[in-house]
Design goal:
single chain; 213 residues; mainly beta; seven-stranded antiparallel beta sheet; five-stranded antiparallel beta sheet; 2 helices; 41% strand
Length: 213
């Protein structure tokens, strides 16, 4: 069954493109376009032999505005409760730049070098990203999600949201994206993850986009 799910994940992710509305969830606000590609991943066992599932989500952040935009993202590294059942948890983290390709590659696990080894041995602390996206350019980042399959079913879906945007009800409850406190030159970011959609989900505040004045 584990092998079957890994094959399903790979098949679902083949053929990614900006125009594939079934696999992607584009968001555009104030000249910033966000797109989260369909999941890839599989199953691994920790040192005790316990099995975990992992997903990798590739996110495109495109700056169609006329000014540079600072992208800042932070994930806490600790367990995050899934709603509405807070006895189920996920871990969310950023893959480091030194093992992640900077161009979109539709190959195994998006071409991240040693992706499964990194998931298995990754540090338990916070992960962060700081970069500037120039006008007309895009930045690609990779977000990992790990969870125990006990009591959960389904491949999982995720999306990087700008605060207050309306989620797809097929994956997230209505009104689940927080509005946040938007400043004049900043956009709040939230990472939404749904396992067995839309039964179990979490909305993780994860950073901001700030336009240079």
């Amino acid at each position: 069954m584990r092998t079957h799910w890994s094959i399903v994940l790979l098949v679902l992710a083949i053929g990614c493109s900006w125009t594939d509305k079934a696999s992607h969830h584009p968001n555009t606000h104030r000249g910033i376009a966000l797109q989260t590609d369909a999941p890839r991943g599989g199953v691994y066992a920790d040192t005790s032999g316990k099995e975990f599932e992992y997903r990798i989500f590739r996110v495109h952040v495109k700056n169609d505005s006329t000014v540079p935009a600072e992208l800042a993202m932070d994930f806490p590294g600790g367990p995050i409760a899934l709603l509405p059942d807070t006895d189920k948890y996920i871990s969310v983290f950023l893959f480091p730049d030194d093992i992640s390709p900077d161009t979109a590659q539709d190959v195994f696990n998006y071409g991240i070098t040693g992706s499964e080894d990194y998931v298995r041995t990754r540090p338990s602390g916070p992960t962060s990203l700081r970069t500037t996206v120039l006008p007309g350019e895009a930045h690609i980042l990779y977000i990992g999600v790990v969870f125990s399959p006990e009591g959960l079913d389904g491949l999982g879906r995720a999306q990087l949201f700008i605060g207050g945007q309306k989620p797809d009800p097929s994956f997230f409850p209505e009104g689940s994206v927080p509005t946040g406190t938007q400043k004049g030159n900043e956009l709040d970011l939230t990472f939404g993850i749904s396992i067995d959609p839309p039964e179990h989900y979490s909305m993780v505040p994860c950073g901001r986009i700030a336009f240079e004045k």
